[in-house]
Write a structure and sequence with these properties.
Number of strands: 0
CATH topology of the largest domain: Serine Threonine Protein Phosphatase 5, Tetratricopeptide repeat
Strand content: under 5%
CATH architecture of the largest domain: Alpha Horseshoe
Largest sheet: none
Mean pLDDT: 90
Helix content: over 70%
CATH class of the largest domain: Mainly Alpha
Number of domains: 2
Distance between the termini: 61 Å
Shape: globular
């Protein structure tokens, strides 16, 4: 029985690896990521999001398409005049689906915290007290899962800065974390190649925090 379970586990790992390494999958993801970088309107955002969702339907064991669809819905809430809560609720559901595929993933966990941070921004006074600890917990968990994840660190820095401004305390902790994230982004940049489809976003947010630390 143990041998059967081990064989099944190894088979599932191989299937997931083979799918993620499939040239067609990589090419489809690259096409959507290139389109993501050109989004200027909500309609374009929806089109690219739907493209990622179609990839997700075709590759049910891959978390990345769901992750990017959730990220786009989160960014849409920040960028466009839409029903922000609806977009963020949809983003959270997509992130939960991604989490079921890849539990304990630092990137997905950090994204879940980012979605909560976006929801807080809609009504800081009404939501900050209850949602801020949840977001901070998710960012802390994401950091513990992968201390080399620059997004987990930079998003935590953003939350720390916002809390320091709200409570009138110094930004030293936020600034320290933001600088740490910048170092991690530099390390990440060295890994990026033509076939890199893992998340690389967040450096602009880290820049915004560090710009307030001078």
């Amino acid at each position: 029985m143990k041998k059967y379970i081990l064989t099944l586990t190894l088979s599932l790992v191989w299937i997931a690896f083979a799918q993620a390494s499939d040239p067609a999958f990589v090419a489809a993801m690259q096409k959507q990521l290139a389109a993501k970088n050109t989004i200027a309107t909500f309609e374009q955002s929806q089109t690219v999001t739907n493209g990622f969702l179609r990839i997700a339907e075709a590759t049910e064991t891959e978390w990345l398409p769901l992750y990017y669809a959730a990220l786009l819905k989160t960014e849409a809430a920040f960028r466009f005049d839409i029903d922000k809560d609806k977009s963020l609720d949809e983003a959270l559901e997509l992130a939960k689906k991604a989490d079921k595929i890849a539990p304990g993933n630092s990137e997905i966990t950090a994204l879940q915290g980012y979605i909560l941070m976006a929801k807080i921004s809609i009504d800081p006074a009404g939501r900050g007290q209850t949602m801020s600890p949840q977001a901070m917990q998710l960012f802390g968990k994401a950091i513990n899962l992968d201390r080399e994840n620059p997004r987990a660190v930079s998003l935590m820095a953003q939350m720390e800065l916002g809390m320091s401004q709200f409570f009138g305390t110094g930004p030293e902790k936020a600034c320290g974390m933001a600088r740490m994230s910048m170092d991690l982004y530099k390390k990440e940049e060295a890994k990026i190649n033509d076939e890199y489809i893992l998340p690389t976003w967040g450096k602009k947010q880290a820049d915004q925090v560090t710009s307030k630390c001078n």
